[in-house]
Amino acid sequence: MPQLKGRIYMRQMFCTLVVAGLVWGAVPVGRADARSPQVAVEKPAPDFTLTLLSGEKVRLADLRGKVVLLNFWASW
User: Fold this and answer.
1) Looking at residue 56, what DSSP letter applies?
2) Are 70 and 62 in contact (CB under 8 A)?
3) Confidence of residue 41 (pLDDT cuts 50, 70, 90)
């Protein structure tokens, strides 16, 4: 009987951890910065400027009508 109680306890703990993880993952972290532009579906992206490795600056508005793929990388 002690083994059965131990298994039930372990299952309950596992289920509790899974549910807690799902709830924690669904809660938004932080809040949107009021200064950042709001982006909506099917609306044009806000204009921005990027500096290339060569030092050249590229604006999104200059690429209008062309396909643009942005790939942001981070490493920490």
Assistant:
1) -
2) no
3) confident
Q: According to the model, what pLDDT value does residue 1 have?
A: 60
Give the chain's length. Answer: 76
Where are the strands (E) in 1-76, listed by range?
Answer: 49-51, 57-59
**DSSP states of 29-51 as a string?**
PS---TTSPP--TTSPPPP-EEE
| pTM to 2 decimal places | 0.41
CB 74 within 8 A of CB 68: no
For the chain, the 3-state helix, strand and coil shares in percent, each to the nearest 5, are 40, 10, 55
Q: Which residues is 58 bridged to in the sheet?
A: 50
